[in-house]
Amino acid sequence: MIRQEGTKTNTLDVFKALLKNDQLMWLSLSYILFAIAYVATTATLILNFTFVIGNASLYSITGIVGFIGSIILVPMFPTLAKKFGRRKVLTGAIISMLVGYVLFVLGNSVPMTVGGLIFLTAPYQLVFLSVLMTITDSVEYGQWKNGVRNEAVTLAMRPLLDKIAGAFSNGIYGFVAIAAGMTGSKYISGHTYGVATFKLYSFVVPAVLMIIALAVYLLKVKLTEKRHEEVVAELEERLK
């Protein structure tokens, strides 16, 4: 194993390490945009079931769809990544999620909502695993570029980004609920709710964020499996 450990790091060192590792920096930017978009939608889906469809009890299918999607797709990830590469797997997963957003925006029925859930939540684990593996590869990339292997800081980045995105969820829910007039606990027949406003903030804006996240990833993240192999080979030569 290639190893050239650096000293222990503090919070300032974390940001310094991020800025010195351009691939980790761009990947982190792409992922935080993706994560915020995803939590913005998942945090407000209960409003969709309660005030758009008018049946809050159906919200439970959200977790079921995501769980089934994970069971099916997670075991397939190694095969998909080997055949197509993580870059294409992540791209395909996000495109699928964008299809889900289209279904959410266009439909107010249960079938359209279930379809949106399948396309949105099932591929999430493919994005997660693609990012996780690339972050892991960026450990060697950072060592190759800076001469110091800072594994702890690098691998802590993804959980940190998830926590940051998660911290937005309550605020996003409150903002969307108030903006769309969906502040009650039950659907009231005949009451006018801001469905268009709700869909704008819960589906359209997150979809735009995901498109930006994908663009950043495709344009700036160059650490493919092949590039990682080249980096490791060069490191092995240096450390002989």
From TrEMBL:
Statement: the UniProt record of this protein carries the keyword Transmembrane helix: yes
MF-aspect GO terms: symporter activity
Record carries keyword Membrane: yes
Gene Ontology biological-process entries: carbohydrate transport
Transmembrane spans: 24-51, 57-77, 89-107, 113-135, 167-188, 200-219
Keywords, ordered alphabetically: Membrane, Transmembrane, Transmembrane helix
One Gene Ontology cellular component annotation held by this UniProt entry: plasma membrane
Protein's recorded name: Lactose and galactose permease, GPH translocator family
